Amino acid sequence: MQLNGDQRLEAYRRMLRIRRFEEEGMRQFKGDKIPGFFHSSVGQEAAIVGACLALRDDDAMTGTHRSHGHPIGKGAHLDALMAEVMGKEGGICKGRGGSMHFADNSVGIISESAIVGGGIPLATGCAFSARVRGVDQVTLCFFGDGAVNQGTFHESLNMASLWKLPVIYLCENNGYAITTSLAQSHGQPDIALRAAGYGMPGVTVDGQDVCAVYEAAAQAVRRARAGEGPTLIVANTYRFDEHSFGLVISGEPYRSVEEVEAHKRDRDPILLYRTVLLEEGINEESLGAVEDEVAEAVKQAVKFALASPMPRPETLPDYMFNSPLAGQYSSAAGLERN
Amino acid sequence: MLTDAQKLAPTPGTHIQMTYLEALMQAQMEEMDRDERVVLMGEDISVYGGDKLIERFGRNRIWDTPISEGSFTGMGIGAAINGLRPIVDLEFASFAYLASDQIINQASKLRYMTGGQIDIPIVFRCCMFSTGSMAAQHADRPYPLFMNVPGLKIISPTSAADIKGLMKSAIRDGDPVLVFEEKRLWPLKGDVPTDPDHVIPIGKADVKREGKDVTLIAIAGAIRPTMEAVDALAKEGISVEVIDPRTLKPLDHEAFKTSVAKTGRLVIVENGHRVCNVGSEIVAVMAEEAFDLLKRPILRLSAPDIHVPFSPSLEKDFYPTKDHIVAAVRRLL
Q1: Which end of chain B lies in a sparser environment, N or C, as judged by fewer CB atoms within 10 Å?
Q2: Do domains B18-193 and B206-332 have the same CATH topology?
């Protein structure tokens, strides 16, 4: 299963949308327009987009604290995402989630868990629901190499395999859990081998090759929809920026400048894919049109976000409950004081 | 003698005697009949879930899980977000700690953190096996810990009719609800409406006994020694009003104030540990909102700040007893 005609340019468009969104986000962060943390996905675009393109619009997804790329990869509009990182009323989560929690339910994302490994059971539950309701929806679960060492990974993969749930576990393996390398934290560093322990296929792919990730994900989706159960895909990728933008890590460097520069030079997923597309006969003009369109969309998103008002303080309790109860906020520490 | 099936068969407009545990089971079964999105999951649930659940609902509605509390709880949450209405049975309340990351970091927060994009209609059941030499790792009453978490509703009813009506409300609710049952209440019988739509609103306390001298707020299993104490005091001519909050989050402040406006005296009895328990919260509420109604200081009776011991001789007086409660009420008069 390969990316078909339309999907080939769409893959390029979505990877570029992630890249430009992140670059613009980092500029806005420097300009003090974005509070909190900013974890960029630059360098990891192919792993995200390749997997997302294998899904249908009605398929479900969960992500991680490095959350910006996932909704963009699944096709989300940029405006409400940019407003969210700025903490604005027009944000996708109304300014309640922020940079690490870009859940966009309009594209099937139920949550982006900033608790490492926390989203793995949720994705498993989404797939469980599809199984119980007898629908052919698939769930894609993103997590990093650090999350593989959480108990939720083990418990969830076991249950998904036991009940043959339609879920795809996609490890964005960028080699570092903040500063702790894979070698320093995994007794057995080949993550895909873990799948054998749960009785499911474990596949390792070049996470910088959007086509390779797509093919692995499409195969896993086919298995899942056919009732054959979950697949673990390990996409080996690399983050070009620091764990979090602006983070200064003092002391012994955990990765060398040469290592980072070599990846940026030789393993940039967007540059690699651009070369492939040109080789396949897509002309510069077509690529340029996509690039212009993406630049315009990001510009528009910033404009929308800057113009969006901050949430009003009196809206603080909004969205807490589906069925609010009388007296829910009646304690003395309630709204009057806030 | 009625068979179980006859006893549990719903007949609108009538009442029937049944135990607290039977009422709880009936609530679950009626709601599963009413709404096919309701599923039940937990460890050994097909065996201990009662009343041949699998025979009635099939294996697609009743799920025996591996021993993986952290993740099957999270799986229930994911399923709730994606179209089901799961009841996750954690059995022992002490096991809720294993599930607490998912309950606190996911179930309680995700609706808010996503700006209302998703709903999480889920019920977490667990039971407080506080007595019977379970020792510290099986005997906890962790409701105060969860009361400190925004976004959760918490119920802990004490009668058969209340557990049925509140459990139904919990299952029909659009948000996460924690149910803290009490093992000591399981065998208690009471009149329960057989109406399948007998629901009791979450957040409303109940006056279990009217009185004029002292208000006594009893939480969960503490209702049993409380009622014994109240009966003994009545024989001496001391009239005690007993309030059962039934819902622990949110607490029904108005019910407490209405009663204390009448009595001017308040004792709170519970089996939770002493520090930062539900009594602490009620005392704070009364001090802030109703200080001028009080004629005397508020007294709290609870378990001490010590783990639940194994030995019967140590466990015997660990929780508030009838004698402790009688003494506390006398101190206020």
Answers
A1: N
A2: yes
Within 42-71 of B, beta carbons closer than 8 Å to A belong to: 60-61, 65-66, 68, 70-71
In the beta sheet, which residues pair with residue B269?
B218, B301
Find chain A residues with C-beta within 8 A of B105's C-beta: 113, 115, 118
Which of B72, B106, B118 faces A105 most closely, judged by CB atoms? B118
Q: How many angstroms separate the CA of residue B313 from the nearest CA in chain A?
A: 39
- Inter-chain CB proximity B65 and A331 less than 8 Å: no
> In sequence order, what E strands does A37-181 have?
60-64, 109-113, 139-144, 167-173, 176-177, 180-181
What would the pLDDT profile of A158-207 be if each residue is shown by its tens digit? 999 999 999 999 999 999 999 999 999 999 999 999 999 999 999 999 99
The model's pLDDT over B214-257, given as tens digits with 9 standing for 90+, comes to: 999 999 999 999 999 999 999 999 999 999 999 999 999 999 99
**Does A155 contact B71 at a Cβ distance shorter than 8 Å?**
yes
Determine contact, residues A142/A186, Cβ cutoff 8 Å: no
Mean predicted confidence (pLDDT) in B188-200:
94
Q: Which residue has the tokens 């249950």?
A: A159
Predicted local confidence at residue A323, as pLDDT? 87
The CB density around residue A227, as the number of other CB atoms within 10 Å, is: 11
> Cα–Cα distance between B88 and B98 in angstroms, integer?
13
pLDDT at residue B7 tops 90: no
| pLDDT tier for residue B10 given thresholds of 50, 70 and 90 | low
Burial of A275 (0-12, 13-18, 19+ CB in 10 A): exposed
Rounded Cα distance between B41 and B62, Å, is 6
Interface list for B 134-153 with A (CB within 8 A): 150-151, 153
Does the domain made of B18-193 have the CATH classification 3.40.50.720?
Answer: no
Q: What is the pTM of this model?
A: 0.95
Q: Which helix (H) or strand (E) is B19 found in, with range?
A: strand B15-19
Domain B206-332: CATH architecture, name and number where available: 3-Layer(aba) Sandwich (3.40)
Interface size A-B, in CB pairs within 8 Å, comes to 175
Q: Which residues of A touch B203 (CB under 8 A)?
A: 325-328
Q: Specify whether the CB–CB gap between A232 and A167 falls below 8 A.
A: no
Average pLDDT over residues B181-189: 95
B253 is annotated as an active-site residue: no
Q: Is the ipTM of this complex over 0.85?
A: yes
Q: Which of B75, B109, B257 to mutate to test the interface with A (most CBs of A within 10 A)?
A: B75
Q: Is B310 on the interface with A (CB under 8 A)?
A: no
